[in-house]
Amino acid sequence: MNIATRKTDVLVSVHDARLHYRVGGAFAAMRGKSTVVKAVDGVTFDIRRGESVGLLGESGCGKTSMGRLLLKLEETTGGSIHFDGEELGKVQRKGLKTFRSRAQLIFQNPFDAINPRFSIRATLSEPLENAGIPRGEREGRIIKALELVRLPEPAQFLDRYPHQLSGGQLQRVVMARALILQPEFVVADEPVSMLDVSVRAGVLNVFRDVRDRLGLTAIYISHDLALVRYVCERTIVMYLGRIMEDGPTEDIVHQPLHPYTKALVAAVPVPNPDQSHDPLPIGRGAPDPRNPPSGCVFRDRCPSAHARCAAEVPQPRQVGTRTVACHLF
Amino acid sequence: MPEIAIPKSTISKTAGIRRPHIVVRIFQALKLPVNDPFAVAGLVIYLVFVVAAVFADQIATHDPTEILYTPSYDLAADLRPGQDGFLMGTTSLGRDIFSQLVYGSRSALLIGVTAAFMVALIGSIIGLVAGYFGRWVDAVLMRLADIAFGIPFLPFVIVLAAFLQPSIWNVVIAMALVLWRDTARVIRSQVLTLRTRGYVEAARVAGSSDFKIILRHIAPNILPLSFLYGSIAIGWAILTEASISFLGFGDPDSISWGYMLQDAFASQALAKQAYYWFVPPGVCIILVVSAGFFITAVMKTSFSRS
């Protein structure tokens, strides 16, 4: 990347990113039986500063793997990811330290994301300690971060342990930990999926408010189109490690183009128990990721699949406001 | 009358919370399994031998290596218990058996504790590193563990003793070199599950170094396991030292129970029917080793329950 692109408003740039796992040991490889699972396979997109992008897909589609790649918790096995002009693969030591304070993760399961032996104070001190914040300033920043996520009377929580907090409170602590170093980029991996429905809205609103107030660039990973619509202006739909459709959320909700997106939109539950649901136009389960179909990975479940879909991998094409990877367009 | 029906325990509770005695609190902090009769027996046996080892100079009636004489200036050899004031009799060379037994607990304790410490320390570090870093680090360390599993332990100690000067430390070195394998394997498997926990990943995102993550987030969770394997090693070390000394590869200058058995065997104590000579050290070995196993067995069950 040259200096010129650093000045652009693109914060994260993913180019043909791949994350392939080899399954089966050395012996399987010798017998030619080892297989490759392509968790992320040739994904390309840019995220502008301040943009909120939803990463949408069913379980196993590679959305969490994509999030882990973006935070350098996993190394790409191909392609590249640039964060503010710097290639993540080359970030080392000091650069990594800076990156860790600029990019953060909000965890899916708040009950697992905080060490049960650590008090809330100790949990929130860890990132500050690593960033070299002097001891005297830490308490003030911890209180501020907890206020930011609207945990009432934060001081009383400092010496409590995770088991003394409710799920909603814990998830706020997890968010406070992610935000305490004032990052620019936050990946939220299904942050409300482990919470009771009753506290979801509260946590989601906090997430939205904080994001707007701090001008965060955010990725919101979810399998729930309704949640993504509530939080993100842009949505990327993934299926078996590839991007199917990428565009403004409202356009995708009102007029999905890709057959898979259509099925996703049709699957969103309607809050009316009497309304019967038309059977989804796609087959039931996703194929074995070790052995995906040739050509378009979605073709074995696609109602409009034709001969070309088996022969050729559809390349992303610009259709109006969106990019779609389908031979129909 | 309802007051009479109140059980005694309730009364003492309502009478005000009294802080337990300092000794009780130390025991509680150690989380020793004091509810189990076997564990209590083991702890009592340990306590007796630790006291004997620490106060050996005060308890022993004679220097264990000194050749003694009777009041009539004869060599005090092969005296029966109680004869001429020797509590448990004397050896064929005129040494006091009781004093040897007391000093024997000192070398048993020394070997047991140092060997246990070494085994627990090396095993824990290797297990932590292999489990946390995985990949080739794990592969290399676990193949080393495989090799260590392939080494026959007793012959290894004998060969080591043959190369080095005969010394009680040979047993400690041999145990450190070979017996880390069990501890390392078990701790590695524990670390493999711990490192997938969300809070370990969270620490990485928070910018913590690998060293810090291992020390603060993983090591505290495997500490009870290291402690367990360390205490198993105590029994092993004492047993091994006894075997080595009995086979004649021990340190002739230090008195241990194994050395006493060897001395008795070489002096044909059995033919002389000198049971007072070889039975006590044998019983001591059995007591200490089984005490360790009593405690660890209880710890193991409470560990797997939690």
From TrEMBL, chain A:
ATP-binding recorded as keyword: yes
PROSITE patterns cross-referenced by the UniProt entry: ABC_TRANSPORTER_1, ABC_TRANSPORTER_2
Family annotation (CDD domains): ABC_NikE_OppD_transporters
Gene3D superfamilies (UniProt xref): P-loop containing nucleotide triphosphate hydrolases
Transmembrane segments: none
Main location: membrane
Topology of this chain in the membrane: Peripheral membrane protein
GO molecular function: ATP binding; ATP hydrolysis activity
Cellular location(s): Cell inner membrane
Domain ABC transporter: 14-265
GO CC, one annotated term: plasma membrane
Pfam families noted in UniProt: ABC_tran, oligo_HPY
BP GO annotations: peptide transport; transmembrane transport
Keywords annotated in UniProt: ATP-binding, Nucleotide-binding, Transport
Highest taxon of source: Bacteria
Family per record: Belongs to the ABC transporter superfamily.
Listed name of the protein: Peptide/nickel transport system ATP-binding protein
Organism listed in the record: Xaviernesmea oryzae
Lineage of the species this protein comes from: Bacteria, Pseudomonadati, Pseudomonadota, Alphaproteobacteria, Hyphomicrobiales
Automatic annotation (TrEMBL), chain B:
The keyword Transmembrane belongs to this UniProt entry's keyword annotation: yes
Transmembrane segments: 38-56, 108-133, 153-180, 218-239, 275-299
Domain of life the protein comes from: Bacteria
Primary location group: membrane
Listed PROSITE patterns: ABC_TM1
Pfam families from the UniProt entry: BPD_transp_1 (PF00528), OppC_N (PF12911)
Subcellular localization, as worded in the UniProt entry: Cell membrane
GO biological process: one example: protein transport
Residue intervals of the ABC transmembrane type-1 domain: 105-296
Annotated keywords: Cell membrane, Membrane, Peptide transport, Protein transport, Transmembrane, Transmembrane helix, Transport
Region forming the signal peptide: none
InterPro entries assigned: BP-dependent_transpt_permease, MetI-like, MetI-like_sf, OppC_N
GO CC annotations on file: plasma membrane
Family indicated by similarity: Belongs to the binding-protein-dependent transport system permease family.
PANTHER family from the UniProt entry: D,D-DIPEPTIDE TRANSPORT SYSTEM PERMEASE PROTEIN DDPC-RELATED, OLIGOPEPTIDE TRANSPORT SYSTEM PERMEASE PROTEIN APPC
Protein name from the UniProt record: Peptide/nickel transport system permease protein
Organism: Xaviernesmea oryzae
